Amino acid sequence: MSSRFNPPRLRKHALAVALGMCLVGGAQAQSNSTGSIAGTTEAGATVTIENPVTGFKRTITAGADGSYRIGALPTGSYKVTTKDQTRDVSVTIGGTATGSSATNLDAITVTGNGKINAIDVSSVESTTILTAEQIAKIPVPRSITAVALLAPGAVRGDAAFGNLASFGGSSVAENAYFVNGFNITNAFNNLNFGQIPFEAIAEQQVKTGGYGAEFGRSTGGVINLVTKRGSNEFHAGGNIFITPQSLDGYNPDVRTNGGFNVTTGLNESPRVSAINSRDTTGNITTASIWASGALVRDRLFAYALLQYGRTSAADTFGSENSLTNTSFESKQPTWVVKLDWNVSDSHLLELTAFSDTNKSETDVYNNLDPAAGGVFNANRALVRTSKLGTVFNETGGDSYSLKYTGYLTDSFTLSALAGRGKSSRSN
Question: pTM (2 decimals)?
Answer without folding.
Answer: 0.82
